[in-house]
């Protein structure tokens, strides 16, 4: 630890590099190293800033490792790298690990507190999370928004109103309590909404958790002091309910509050100061690292790891008043270490870091040439041999980890051309058995290769990796763009296309289902409306009055039959016209393309408009990120399709269905059993739910209680065959046959969820 504080800057860099290299070891070692790095990065941020990408989180990391890396990333965030850090955080929010998601939202709040220029951006991003389907994500966002609003409450009255509406839906106690505290603390900003919130909470008071009841009492007291005309009776009712509550804390709080705010003949001196007690200005909370106070323990000690003084721990001695004799540092060399050729062996030994490695730095691969990377990979592969020994696996781990941060624009453009040709997968190594799945994948996560199975949930962050043989092709890097994103990347080139026309809602309804050809009916026109319905693309708070929703129309897109037709619905809820609505230059992953709608010149207050745009998702549920631009603002938005919207219905006979199904057996077949509820036994209900979930066409079937559906993916035209055997007794069986295994797996999950609801 003394060396850490006293060493020159160059030597401190060597220490940082050594610690970063230890992150390639087992999870136990990583945990200890990250504990120390998290402490050091608070005061010596510049020590680890060059190694930022080394702390990106992988899908295989345990939860405690993820949270420690998140802590380090937050400590290292500054004005320069905050766009990259926020992009990583936005991707981490999609993880299935709820503890990790909660920690990520808290990290976003800390970044907004420490870096003032991104505070509004982070706040708008957290407001977007309030529309998330996961209640825990919404609850954690509410808690962090509450802390951020305390810094500038007067500027965010609209957000407080939006939070007040969530009291009907959010059930997490801490989130409900945070909303009530905000409304009570800033009730002067929402004078019409606050009494109504108190009325609703009074109705459900007896069923609330204790932490929520305490905040209801506080809300009632503050409204009684500021708006007693409307809330006097409500406050008395709430205090009466709390007086007989089972929890003694709530009973005591109710009696204390009644004596403090309600005037009485025997009222004490405190009653005259009730407003000062309840409505006193409160300082905004300071969001700090949990490792801030750990530096009083010696780095690397057990006490530092536990954050508690362990038995036998000895503090570092104070600095001596007089310099000790230098001879105390002389250590006698043991006899057994002496040998005549010691110096010769020392010269031949390779140092821990070579000169070339030290010069290149930790992010040397960030701007390196892709061809040189592939040559080094093939060289390491040939030297390690073809066996599956432990040394080979170690080399693969090192090669993989040393290539963090690979994602330059030059590599992406070069790989885009290669991906148009058929992929080649190495045989006999690593994950060669998954070559069928790899050939189906047409998009990748940033800075690493992931097979198509890893795209199944679309929840993994941009920097997570999966091990592959060194000689395998690397997919081009992609960038996750969202409302938390900032403008710091040059967008990729997009080929110009002819824009589709803007149509009104009424005109689209009138023309729906019509065709001018003499051929058979277009399959997609016969498809029912998607069960996804209208989705929010831009909230009116984040859009400053501009409300944008989107729907999947399932109509053929006129510009390109391989694209999904998406209807964008605009509405102006502000008091001023919105001019120049158009799509900015998109920053899309490889394979995904957008055909934007023509510019909407002006949208008057209260006016609505609908535009049609096409998106080629490349048979992937990966989100399409782009910008909605006006003359004055740019809004980062994202559209992520359900797997059922990536296909179009196909009509075929029963014999054709069986013939094609016979070609898609084995690994191309996914079968699951399910219990159908009694409400889902009729033909009409089954067909309606299946076709609403997936854009498939029904195939005639001569067997009773059996349903067959067929479709093709829009981009590649791969067949998707679905069979439901709804037996009268016992469990039903759902089978999906498809060349796209990832699409088949996701489709099975969605259909089962729709049928069993």
What does this protein look like?
By secondary structure, the chain is α+β, with helices and mostly antiparallel strands. Among the domains are: 177-279; 535-641, Sandwich (Immunoglobulin-like), CATH 2.60.40; 645-756, TATA-Binding Protein, CATH 3.30.310.10. It is built from 27 helices and 15 strands. Helix 12 packs across helix 13 (210-226) and helix 14 (228-243) runs antiparallel to helix 15 (248-261). The two termini are 59 Å apart.
Provide a compact summary of the structure.
Residues 366-375, 391-402, 450-459 have a biased composition (Acidic residues). This protein has 757 residues and is of the alpha+beta class. It has 27 helices and 15 strands.
């Amino acid at each position: 630890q003394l060396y850490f504080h006293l060493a020159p800057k160059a030597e401190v860099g060597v220490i940082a590099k050594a610690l970063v290299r230890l992150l390639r070891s087992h999870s136990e070692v990583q945990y200890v190293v990250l504990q120390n790095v998290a402490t050091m990065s608070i005061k010596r941020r510049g020590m680890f800033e060059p190694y930022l990408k080394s702390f990106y989180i992988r899908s295989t990391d345990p939860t405690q490792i993820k949270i420690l890396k998140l802590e380090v990333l937050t400590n290292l965030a500054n004005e320069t790298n905050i766009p990259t850090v926020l992009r990583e955080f936005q991707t981490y929010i999609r993880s299935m690990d709820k503890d990790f998601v909660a920690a990520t939202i808290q990290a976003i709040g800390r970044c907004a507190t420490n870096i003032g220029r991104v505070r509004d951006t982070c706040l708008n991003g957290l407001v977007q999370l309030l529309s998330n389907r996961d209640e825990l994500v919404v609850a954690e966002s509410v808690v962090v928004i509450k802390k951020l609003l305390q810094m500038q409450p007067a500027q965010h009255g609209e957000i407080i109103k939006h939070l007040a509406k969530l009291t009907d839906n959010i059930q997490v106690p801490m989130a409900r309590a945070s909303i009530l505290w905000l409304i009570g603390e800033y009730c002067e900003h929402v004078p019409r909404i606050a009494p109504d919130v108190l009325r609703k909470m009074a109705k459900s008071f007896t069923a609330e958790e204790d932490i929520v009841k305490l905040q209801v009492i506080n809300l009632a007291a503050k409204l009684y002091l500021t708006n007693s005309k409307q809330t006097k009776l409500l406050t008395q009712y709430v205090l009466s309910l709390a007086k007989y509550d089972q929890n003694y804390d709530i009973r005591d709080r109710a009696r204390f509050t009644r004596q403090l705010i309600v005037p009485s003949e025997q009222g004490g001196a405190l009653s005259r100061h009730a407003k000062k007690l309840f409505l006193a200005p409160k300082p905004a909370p300071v969001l700090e690292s949990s490792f801030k106070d750990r530096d009083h323990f010696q780095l690397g000690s057990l006490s530092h790891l536990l954050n508690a003084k362990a038995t036998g721990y000895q503090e570092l001695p104070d600095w001596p008043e007089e310099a000790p004799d230098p001879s105390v540092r002389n250590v006698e060399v043991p006899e057994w270490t002496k040998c005549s050729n010691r110096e010769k062996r020392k010269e031949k030994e390779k140092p821990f870091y070579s000169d070339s490695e030290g010069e290149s730095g930790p992010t040397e691969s960030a701007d390196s040439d892709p061809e040189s990377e592939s040559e080094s990979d093939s060289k390491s592969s040939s030297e390690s041999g073809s066996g599956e020994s432990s040394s080979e696996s170690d080399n693969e781990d090192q090669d993989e980890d040393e290539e963090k941060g690979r994602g330059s624009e030059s590599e992406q453009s070069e790989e885009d051309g290669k991906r148009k040709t058929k992929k080649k997968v190495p045989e006999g190594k690593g994950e060669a058995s998954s070559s069928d799945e790899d050939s189906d994948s047409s998009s990748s996560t940033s800075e690493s290769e992931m097979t198509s199975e890893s795209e199944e949930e679309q929840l993994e962050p941009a920097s997570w990796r999966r091990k592959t043989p060194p000689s395998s092709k690397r997919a081009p890097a992609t960038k996750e763009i969202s409302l938390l994103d900032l403008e710091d990347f040059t967008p990729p080139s997009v080929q110009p296309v002819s824009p589709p026309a803007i149509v009104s809602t009424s005109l689209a309804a009138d023309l729906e289902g019509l065709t001018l050809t003499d051929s058979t009916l277009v399959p997609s026109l016969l498809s029912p409306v998607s069960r996804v319905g209208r989705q929010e693309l831009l909230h009116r708070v984040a859009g400053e009055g501009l409300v944008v929703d989107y729907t999947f129309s399932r109509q053929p897109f006129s510009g390109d039959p391989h694209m999904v037709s998406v209807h964008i619905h605009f509405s102006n809820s502000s008091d001023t016209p919105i001019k120049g609505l158009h799509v900015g230059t998109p920053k899309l992953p490889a394979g995904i393309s957008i055909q934007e709608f023509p510019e909407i010149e002006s949208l008057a207050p209260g006016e609505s408009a609908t535009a049609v745009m096409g998106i080629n998702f490349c048979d992937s549920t990966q989100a399409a990120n782009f910008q909605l631009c006006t003359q004055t603002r740019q809004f980062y938005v994202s559209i992520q399709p359900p797997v059922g919207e990536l296909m179009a219905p196909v009509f075929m006979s029963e014999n054709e269905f069986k013939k094609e199904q016979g070609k898609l057996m084995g690994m191309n077949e996914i079968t699951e059993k399910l219990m159908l509820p009694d409400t889902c036994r009729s033909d009409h209900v089954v067909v309606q739910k299946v076709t609403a979930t997936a854009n498939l066409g029904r195939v005639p079937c001569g067997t009773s209680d059996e349903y067959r559906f067929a479709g093709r993916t829009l981009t590649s035209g791969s067949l998707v065959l679905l069979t439901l055997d709804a037996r009268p007794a016992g469990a039903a069986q759902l089978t999906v046959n498809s060349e796209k295994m990832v699409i088949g797996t996701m489709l099975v999950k969605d259909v089962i969820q729709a049928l069993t609801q």
